[in-house]
Design goal:
The chain has three helices and nine strands. The protein is of the alpha+beta class. The N and C termini lie far apart (about 35 Å).
Length: about 130
């Protein structure tokens, strides 16, 4: 796969587990690590991350949907077309995806300043970040 799928359902953030056939993905892994350290919050409290099977009925129940990939980070999904399920659309201004986009930008910025801070090996002779 090129991107990893995430769905927001109430206080849950769902994503397929790697034992269900999805590839781990670097961006997905870093986002999940960040969420483990500090869970995402909504007005109703912290969100639970659920790794498991995701199917079309989960898309119908989702209030927000997004993808992660190493080129674009966290990408909001606005619409899905499926031959059996038809068309499903989401608002372009969901608060959870917006917050996660901001959080991931901060993770990327920390990595740019100090690659070792996120577990990446520093290349020999590389100067430490500012």
């Amino acid at each position: 796969t090129i991107s990893n799928l995430f769905l927001v359902q109430g206080q849950k953030l769902l994503t397929p587990s790697t034992d269900r056939g999805c590839l781990g993905g670097i961006t997905r892994a870093k986002l999940l690590e960040d969420l483990e350290r500090q869970p995402a919050e909504t007005a109703r409290g912290p969100m639970e991350v659920v790794l498991g099977q995701v199917d079309l009925s989960d898309l119908d129940a989702a209030s927000e949907v997004f993808l992660t990939n190493s080129t674009s980070g966290v990408i909001r999904v606005l619409e899905v077309m499926h031959s059996e399920a038809g068309k499903k659309s989401w608002s372009g201004s969901g608060p959870v995806v917006t917050a996660l986009q901001e959080r991931f930008r901060a993770v990327e910025e920390r990595y740019r300043r100090d690659p070792a801070s996120l577990g990446a090996p520093r290349s020999a002779g590389a100067a430490p970040g500012p």
